[in-house]
Each structure stands twice: as structure tokens, then as C-alpha cells.
Amino acid sequence: MDWEKVFATRAGRMKASEIRELLKLLAQPDIISFAGGIPDPKLFPDQAFREAYADIFATSAGEALQYSVSEGYPPLREWIAAHMATIGIPCTADNILITSGSQQALDYLGKLLLSPGDTALVGWPTYLGALGAFNAYEPTYDRLDPETNRSASDYAETAAAAGGRVKFAYMSVDFANPTGRTMDRAARERVLDLADELDMAVIEDAAYQALRYNGEAIPPILALEIARKGNIEDCRTLYCGSFSKSLAPGLRVGWVCGSKRAIGQMVLLKQAGDLHSSTLNQMAIDRVARSIFDDHVAMLRGVYAERRDHMLSALKRYMPEGVSWTHPEGGMFVWLTVPPNLDGAELLAKSLKTQRVAFVPGRAFFADGTGGNTLRLSFSLADKETIEEGIRRLGLLLAG
Ligand code: PMP
């Protein structure tokens, strides 16, 4: 069978990452890994989940094991709507669609908004998983850089030359994956100006929103837009939230919040895609969020903040001249820029041989394939001693 002949053109846009093979080596016990951008499983609220699942099976097994509505488990949508109000986004359960992780929301938004050749504005770099989700819908990417004053007409003309129009801007807004940077308020306002001028949607990826360790919270883009327009129904921003970093990623529960018109259309995609997210897991998240969300997130902030501090202090002590890095106020990532003659993928190969330290080379996060001299480090999984030793070794690698 010549599969190439039957694969759709979109399949050609879905490529396995060049570094996947290297990252398989991470399972070896002597490797210090700063590669995985995942929560520390030792911090999962497993006791709360044990009790929630026991209670669900004792009281509501039939409901939990049954099909349920595509919009999501109604009490959980209510809880999320109330939670959104606490971060400056007044809305109702009708403005919420529950998705199987926020990753599914990105896939559905690509499906909803992109025809082949349309343009998606993304950061250089941006979340690799967003590029992966959007790629299937065959977009062209253009660089969103709210700090420059590139005009709306320039974006529009570039998109027309590529055979479509600008459909949305996508951003990981707080403590971004991969850079750890947070968009300031002026940049968020600028994106909203651009969105009005280009008549495009805004996809606000807030996966790390709850994990702020210091500094003042900046209102979500959707909150700023509601302040401009008076209510959520007139807004073009779609906010993607997730319980993956705050409670547990394995249950695959996230959400999208936006105008009823857009959410209603996404419900149709959800119906066609997987009918609904796991009823049982939504019920468990609902119970656990109601009983421990704030306390649990406060605990996570304390632990991760310390790890971030250890990593930043070790970087200061061990990095050679010519290496710079970000100072995240939350999340899980620090982003290193190394001298332009170095290449992240080559450094990783060498590091695994000589220093036994792993990280993610930055190039894959750039839609244009640049960024060879960047590395993503995650501090979420390692304790103080491991961070110290890993960064010391990384310093030797980069000095050598
Ligand atoms: N957005 C960003 C920026 C992420 O880093 C991730 C996960 N690493 C996701 C979305 C997807 O997370 P989930 O599907 O678990 O909500």
C-alpha cells in the first residue's frame, strides 16, 4: 500500500518532531531532565479525587457512566462561569463549552476558523501544540508581534498574497509555553485593536493562568474586551482554560469561554468530534474544584515558585557569558538564548552524551523554523539539588 497516495494533503503538514527520538532517552535514570513541561505528579490532589470518585460511584454511578450533553456537565459549567467572574470575566454557563483538555479547544478553533490558505497570527515562538493543532487546517502563519507597530493593512495584504485572510491571533498569554513571558496590558490592548481592524478572532490560551508566583495579575484579554464592549456577547476573544496545570492533566478537562454565538458553533464541532468529554471525569473535577481549588492552587504556587527561584539563581551562578534567559512570574518555563553560532538540537545531542542533561531545543516553537539558538527549560519536576546539579552541568556544556 502506498499510503502517501491516499493521505489527505493535511497529513503532510503533521510531522513527528525531530527531537522525539532524543527525548525517548529521558527514561534513563541518570538523566537530569528539564524537558518535560508537565505538572509534578507528587503534587496531584489524589486523595480529593479518590473521595470524589468514591462519592460519584456511591451516589450517581448511572449518570457518571452514561452519555451526557455536548456542552459539558452543567454544574461544572456553572462553577467555571463563577470562576471566570473572579478573574474579570462575567459570564454564564451558556458561555462555556467543556473540552477534552484545552488542546481539543485549539483543534476545534482551527477547524472552526481556518480554511486552507487563511492566515493565523502567532508569536515567534509559540506553543508547539497550537501549531500542531492548527497545521491540520492548512493555514499560513504570520508573525504576531504586538510590540511592533505593524499596521493592520500590512497584515491583511500579506494574508491576501498568501491566498486567504487573517482569521485569528493566537497567544499563550501568561507565563507562556515556551518562553515563560507574560504579555503586558498594552500588548493585550494592541491585539484587541488589531482584531477590530482586521475583523478577526482572538484565541487567548490561558493554560497557566492560575500559576502566578509574584507580580500583579494582568486582566485576561477577554476581560479587557468586555470592558471595551460592555458584554461578552459582542466580544471576539475566545478564552481557553484548563484544569491540567491546576488539578490533573490526565482527566482531560478544559474549557472555552466566549460569546454564545461562537460557543454554540463549537458545540456542533464537539458533537461531531467526540459527542462530549468524559462524564465521570467532569463530575470528579466539579467535586474537587468545589472543595479544594483555591487551597490546592495556593500550595502549587508555593512549591513551583521555589523551584523557579532555584533555577533562576543557579542560572545566574553557572551560565557563561553570552547566555541570557527569561524571568517568569509563573508557569513552568525558563527560556534560554545562547550565542547564535550554537544550535539547540546539536546541543541536546551533545548534552545527552557528555552531561546527561535534557531540555527542549527551541526551533520547533517557531513557525518559520528560526530560533535555533534557543532552549526551553522546565523547573516543574525537579527538586532543589537536581536543579542545582542540572544547571551546573548545562553551564559546563555551554562553556565548552
Ligand atoms: N496550551 C498550552 C500553552 C500548553 O502548554 C498546553 C499543555 N502543555 C496546552 C495548551 C494543552 O493542555 P491541556 O490540553 O492539557 O489543557
Describe what this molecule looks like in 3D:
The chain has 2 domains: 3-45 and 294-399, Aspartate Aminotransferase, domain 1 (Alpha-Beta Complex), CATH 3.90.1150.10; 46-292, 3-Layer(aba) Sandwich (Aspartate Aminotransferase, domain 2). The protein contains 14 helices and 13 strands. It has helices at 3-6, 20-24, 46-59, 61-65, 74-86, 101-113, 128-135, 152-161, 185-198, 221-229, 260-274, 279-318, 344-354, 384-399; strands at residues 32-33, 96-99, 119-122, 140-143, 166-172, 201-205, 237-242, 254-257, 324-325, 333-337, 357-358, 360-361, 374-378. It is globular.
Provide a count of the helices.
14
**Main β sheet profile:** 7 strands, mixed
Associated small molecules: 4'-deoxy-4'-aminopyridoxal-5'-phosphate
Average pLDDT level: 95
CATH H level, superfamily name of the largest domain = Type I PLP-dependent aspartate aminotransferase-like (Major domain)
* CATH architecture group name of the largest domain: 3-Layer(aba) Sandwich
Radius of gyration: 21 Å
**Helix and strand sequence:** HHEHHHEHEHEHEHEHEEHHEEHEEEH
Structurally, the number of domains stands at 2
> Mind telling me the CATH class of the largest domain?
Alpha Beta
End-to-end CA span: 48 Å
Low-confidence stretches: none
Tell me, what's the shape? globular
Percentage of β-strand residues: 5-15%
Portion of residues within helices: 40-55%
InterPro entries: Aminotransferase_I/II_large, Class-I_PLP-dep_aminotransf, PyrdxlP-dep_Trfase, PyrdxlP-dep_Trfase_major, PyrdxlP-dep_Trfase_small
Pfam families: Aminotran_1_2
Protein name: PLP-dependent aminotransferase family protein
Cofactor: pyridoxal 5'-phosphate
